From TrEMBL:
Pfam families: BamE (PF04355). PANTHER family: OUTER MEMBRANE PROTEIN ASSEMBLY FACTOR BAME. Residues 106-156 are annotated as: Disordered. Residues 33-101 form the Outer membrane protein assembly factor BamE domain. It is a lipid-anchor. InterPro entries: BamE, BamE-like, BamE_dom. This is Outer membrane protein assembly factor BamE. It comes from Vreelandella andesensis. Residues 115-145 have a biased composition (Polar residues).
């Protein structure tokens, strides 16, 4: 009986710890596509060339494969705990490459929560990943303090 109690207790403990726990999972916002703001769209004027539009909006996420006169800028933000927000701007050009029409879909009234995390990418060996400073006991190698190579003398 005591062995059966231990087995049941161990089974329940493993089940709770493995996947049926009540501990929440960390989620983060996932932005995808072209960042599109109302400020950017308000700078667009009919008659602008494709180069001028590219300067204001950047390259489009989607260019219609059969009609190069239509550009789509799509931004999708999958919020970790609040759902999905999507914005879309469709630009139509005439045959001469001038902007004719600007169509918007989505809510452009609110600001987007944009992460300002500047520590993107892997840390170097001599850099602390948290602070970005040289790790204790080491100097970060820069062109100013890089060691000069010493010539190797042949031994006899």
């Amino acid at each position: 009986m005591q062995k059966l109690t231990r087995i049941i207790t161990l089974s329940v403990a493993l089940t709770v710890v493995s996947g049926c726990s009540y501990v929440g999972v960390y989620k983060r916002d996932i932005p995808q596509g072209n960042l599109v703001t109302q400020e950017m769209v308000s700078q667009l004027q009919p008659g602008m060339t494709q180069e001028q539009v590219t300067y204001v909006m950047g390259r489009p996420l989607l260019e219609a494969p059969f009609d190069t006169r239509e550009w789509d800028y799509v931004y999708r933000l999958d919020k970790a705990y609040a759902g999905v927000e999507q914005r879309r701007v469709t630009l139509t050009f005439d045959n001469t490459g001038r902007l004719m029409n600007v169509a918007q879909q989505g809510d452009f009234s609110g600001d987007l929560p944009i992460s300002t995390d500047t520590s993107a990418g892997p840390a170097t060996e001599t850099t602390d990943p948290i602070t970005g400073n040289a790790t204790p006991g080491q100097r970060a190698t820069t062109p100013e303090n890089a060691p000069t190579p010493q010539p190797v003398m042949p031994t006899e």
